[in-house]
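dude i think i finally got it to work??
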Amino acid sequence: MFILPRYILRIFWGPLILGFSVIVFVLLNQFLIKEIPTWLSKDVPLSVVFDLVSVYIASIVALAIPMAILIATLMTFGQLSEDNEITAMKASGYGLHQAIIPVFFVSTLISYGNFRFLNDVLPEENFKAKKILTDISIKKPTLSFQEGIIFSDADLIKDYQLLFKKIDRTSSWVYGITIFDFTNPEIFRTLLAEKGTLTYNEQMRHIVLDLYTVEIHDIEVRNFSDYRLYTAKQYIVRIDVEQTMFQQSNVEYRGDREMNLAMMHKEIASYDSAIYLYKNDVKKLIRTKKSDVAPETEDFFTDLKIKDFVTDVEKGNYLKKRNNDSLVQKINKDPLVLNQLRMDISYLNMYKQFRNKFSVEVHKKYALPFACIIFVLIGAPLGIRARRGGIAVGTGLSIAFFLVYYAFLIGGEQVADRGLMPPWLAMWAANIIVGALGIALTVGVVSEKTFFYSSIWERRFINWLTRAK
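look at this
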């Protein structure tokens, strides 16, 4: 009864292990070529380099597993088809769907294992890497920052959050600077600067930001109506650094990729609370101004949404012209109200960005392991159709499909982080599209129909891969 399933799985395991090993080897080599010269130039001990390599291997395992399953499925069913064993199975009454079931079952188990790995093992490995990279980054501060992403590592710098639009990696210059200063619990301070230099002082105890063309916005925490604006051509900010020499750090804060699902759901709940509070602050501010201009229109802001008034931040126009132009004009001409709106909206957008980032990671922990199942539905029918190509066709098709899948995954993550698409849709779009195609291909092969997958373009692609062999 189980002779054929065991036979199919015996063929399946070889390509699976081989494909997994090759993928890990290729991705690891790319990583080593890129990173090791940087680490060695900063005098990182070899023992620490080996620790980072082991951590990075863990990070690529999650990606290597789905791709290895796709390769193994393509090669398994390609070999069965090439040896005419598929025909023999049909003649003995063993349907193609029965041949796919054992691979599908094993891939489901692997998918669950990959999910547990992503949730239980990988966050701890990423956290371990963070401790090491925190120490490495202190020797060249610009390596710690990324363009357009808020830096808020409390274990390297405390009471500050930094955002740079552009970073010159060849020098110490940074551009489009935003600094959130939390050193004074009674004042929300935000510094905006066109450009500046980012360096350490000689004792390496402070990060020194020498800013040019600076705006300083201060708001009293207890009384949001007390707002002050200062400008300066040059302004220096010194930020204390927690670690001053290479050693294993006692890092406590975890980012989104260093948390399991329970931790991330807790973070998302805290950001939801912060977003709710800032939305209420904005509503109260505009309602207060409304009472001075149009007290008779009590229902004007009952359906207020943030998008209704964040329209042109650069020009300072925060309200769309709805059914009360006098209120819009009054607010847009009031510097105090506009500056308060600007600060509240900055914090609101910051918390929304954080929430989206964590939500993306939550869905990614489910979507990526589920790809193991999706790729079986793609690999089995394509392997049968591409029987003449053997390993060349199997590898070529695997790489092509995985590149498309990975492009959807990375692109969706970027779009969701910016709030342009719901996180769940951004992370599951690739599975939905590839899964729908896989189901159609599988149904077509099982029912022995020859619709779109036997088109001229597929035949040309398979023939080209066959010739490449």
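The radius of gyration is 28 Å.
im so relieved honestly
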